[in-house]
Amino acid sequence: MGTMHRYLTKTRFKVGHECPTKLYFYGKPEFGNNNSDSAFLHALAEGGFQVGELAKVYHEGGIQIETLDSEEAIKETAKHLKRKSVILYEAAIKFQDLFVRVDVLRKTDDVVELIEVKAKSFDPTEEDPFYNKRELKKGIKKIHSEWEPYLLDIAFQTHVVRGAFPKWKITSALMLADKSSEATVDGLNQLFSLETDSTGRTRAVANPKVKKTDLGVQVLTRVGVDEEVRLIFGQEFDGKSFSEYISCLSAAFTQDKMIAPLVGSRCKSCEYRIDNLKKQSGLKSGFETCWSHAAKFSTKDFERPLVLDVWNFRKSDNIIKNGRYFMDSLEEGDIEPRPRPGDAGLSNTERQWIQITAATKEGKRPYLDHAGLSAEILGWTFPLHFIDFETTMVAIPFNKGRKPYEQIAFQFSHHVFNADGTIEHKTEYINREQGKFPNFEFVRALRLALSNDSGTIFRYAAHENTVLTQIRHQLKNSSELDRQELIEWIESITKSCDDSIDKWEGKRNMVDLCDIIKRYYYHPETHGSNSIKKVLPAILGTSEFLQNKYSHPIYGATNSIQSKNFQDWSWIKKDAKGVVIDPYKLLPPIFSDLDLETMDSLITEGSLADGGAAMTAYARMQFTQMSEAERNRVSKALLRYCELDTFAMVMIYEYWRFEIESRQRKAA
User: Fold this and answer.
1) Which of 117, 432, 464, 525 has its CA 20 to 30 A from that of 532?
2) Does the pTM exceed 0.70?
3) Please, what is the Cα angle at 398 between 395 and 401, to 5 degrees?
4) What whole-number distance in Å separates Cα of residue 611 and Cα of residue 158?
5) Residue spans per domain, the chain
6) Spatial distance between the Cα atoms of 139 and 186, rounded to a whole number of angstroms
7) pLDDT of 129-185, one tens digit each?
């Protein structure tokens, strides 16, 4: 292996553009990083590994630069670029202290095309897709924030290759998943299996017999972006030209110097903001390093609730710029809490003020609007149904007739709470079969599960409603004999999305339990989060009723709570300090190399219903070679995981019901 040089790569450039100070922490093992596996997990869950391999098949006849050693790869690439015409995969090129690996490089004479392959959807029918529409109306061409990371990536590569080969003509393109293209062959994904090489890297490997002609209509599209690259080259970044900006980041990284931090609301989700467990293991916090420099924080200051952690607070940057960093520095006038117009429950600003008050006072008691919540509950009809879906959207369609990033619903769980207080894990569904399109079978199974009565149905957040409306659209374009019946049933339990041409709201439209929480309940231990993964542990840590009930092995026990995946199970277990352990941490890992928390880390709150673990597991079931025993083990783990998602909703309901009834008994 050659000597490791501290090049500014395209990945490091991306990190530096997000936050220049992060370059100092990047790659240093002493600094904890919450996103250490996220790039891998995203690629796995969305089929990104397969997209890269598919792009190579679309550009047949290329040469793979295999070596991971930068210097060796540069030499090998230079040797091949002496040819008049060549296609290279992962071409390695350096210029000064800059280094790139180009996904696909095509050279003909002195014309070189750089193609960056991304597992991102693209609509070729959209006019000016890369630009901010509001600015365009003013005659200003500004890159849309959604596309900026991808276009900066290819612009960085273009800068490096032009610097290395100034006499050549360099053109730039992105290769993206074409939302308008339908697969014309089945099993595209199965042509690219995932394998782990001798270095431990996961990669997609194409079936050696696969030819471009076997793939049918292309589901990836090449989009030229020379105009966008020119626009980026002409912009200023922190008062510098693009070239100067790159040089500044490169100098900081190669010299291992920390660029002075600018703290603000974006620090909230910083991957170097690690928890106490990681710090106790000896890892350093990059977040604390930044705030110690920029805001002169002491060690104790990091124990105080910060302004940037106020939920959905859009004024935090201005307040931080004025030197107010802590929640206890906020006044009611900063929030201006106002009632929700024409609706029951808390408004966003009222909820923010409750969070601030709870975080800055002793006791930290949960907020529960007994009267408002009681009124909601009175409108619910028994038996109560709690449902949760696990879904995925992959770049390369599994099936003929399907488009990139179409919704795939592969699993659901369903609990029932009866009028007499009995609880049952009633039904479940999972698709284990590789390459199968499960959505219509999924809806039939769900319809069968929910059609025996007119009880209220609960979901958590918008995910289930969105998925069913997307399947409705798929049914409308299908030839299923029962499609009209299924469409009508979907409409009966859903509400049309804001962007839908058709408008409806079903008589049995699902109740969003997350919305109920936002309006009537707040627990300080959630720190503003409404994720069920945060709400449930907070409630269990508070509720003596739930602790007493579920410390006994009654879940999945005969003549008690029926379960399909657990037997004689206790949900309440405490650690050495007497703290209730998060129930999700009681579940065994789905895979031995990735625990649930790590796999869920790629899903941020509010997207995909916190289903990162299930998405990752399903991707592995679809894309990797598994024995039947391993497939059964993974399926069993997924069923347990999803069952807890719906039982979490049941326990939240039980807690509310107990609290309301207790208040009513005291009042009587």
Assistant:
1) 432
2) yes
3) 95
4) 37
5) 47-250, 265-351, 375-512, 522-667
6) 45
7) 999 999 999 999 999 999 999 999 999 999 999 999 999 999 999 999 999 999 999
